[in-house]
């Protein structure tokens, strides 16, 4: 016999009706009191909570970085292992076909190495570019191995931008 589709079937009546669901509660490892700041929370951010104030932000100074131009260079990036020089680095500008220059706001607590990634044009038509690692011989240098030398930015003992010699990382040899 045909059944009326609006009439409940025995199977339909077995499905319970959910009118309200209980809240889902989970115990997440490492989750503390909601007033506690998360681990590794960035400095300089004000958080209202029980007995917590984030550390003061670290200042930075505009520092010029320079590298002499070499034949075949089509781009240069200032790179380092940590912010603000990490990842792809900071692109530099060619000045008077003589040297590459960029100004970067370096944190007062940056104490690490840096280098220049120089992109050279291919020797072959439509060939791939080559990126080589360079350092400025007139800036502070750190020799890592006989094949790996970087420049060094040392902020130790620096309390303000006035403590940094502006020519330290921007000196390049005079053009021939």
Strand content: 25-35%
Average pLDDT rating: 76
Uncertain ranges? none
Rounded Rg: 30 Å
Distance between the termini: 104 Å
- Total number of helical segments? 1
Count of distinct strands: 9
| Secondary-structure element string | HEEEEEEEEE
The share of residues in helices is under 10%
Largest sheet: 6 strands, antiparallel
Shape estimate: extended
Structural class: mainly beta
Descriptive report:
It is extended, with a radius of gyration of 30 Å. It is mainly beta and 176 residues long. It is built from one helix and nine strands; from the N terminus they run αβββββββββ. The protein has one helix at residues 10-13, and strands at 60-68, 73-79, 90-91, 93-95, 99-107, 111-120, 130-134, 141-145, 148-154. Strands 2, 3, 6, 7, 8 and 9 form a six-stranded antiparallel sheet that branches. It has a three-stranded antiparallel sheet with strand order 1-5-4, with no helix packed on it. Strand 8 and strand 9 form a beta hairpin. The relative contact order is 0.16. 2% of the residues lie in helices and 32% in strands.
Topology:
Blueprint: H1 10-13, E1 60-68, E2 73-79, E3 90-91, E4 93-95, E5 99-107, E6 111-120, E7 130-134, E8 141-145, E9 148-154
Antiparallel strand pairs: 1-5, 2-3, 2-6, 4-5, 6-7, 6-9, 8-9
């Amino acid at each position: 016999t045909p059944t009326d589709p609006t009439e409940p079937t025995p199977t339909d009546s077995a499905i319970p009706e959910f009118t309200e669901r209980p809240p889902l509660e989970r115990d997440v490892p490492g989750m503390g009191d909601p007033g506690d700041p998360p681990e590794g929370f960035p400095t300089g951010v004000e958080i209202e909570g029980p007995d917590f104030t984030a550390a003061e932000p670290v200042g930075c100074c505009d520092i010029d970085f320079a590298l002499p131009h070499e034949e075949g260079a089509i781009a240069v990036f200032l790179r380092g292992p940590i912010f603000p020089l990490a990842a792809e680095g900071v692109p530099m500008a060619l000045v008077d076909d003589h040297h590459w220059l960029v100004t970067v706001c370096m944190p007062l607590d940056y104490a690490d190495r840096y280098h220049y990634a120089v992109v050279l044009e291919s020797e072959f038509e439509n060939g791939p570019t080559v990126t080589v690692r360079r350092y400025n011989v007139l800036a502070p240098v750190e020799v890592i191995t006989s094949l790996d030398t970087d420049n060094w930015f040392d902020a130790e003992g620096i309390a303000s931008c006035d403590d940094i010699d502006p020519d330290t990382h921007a000196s390049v040899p005079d053009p021939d």
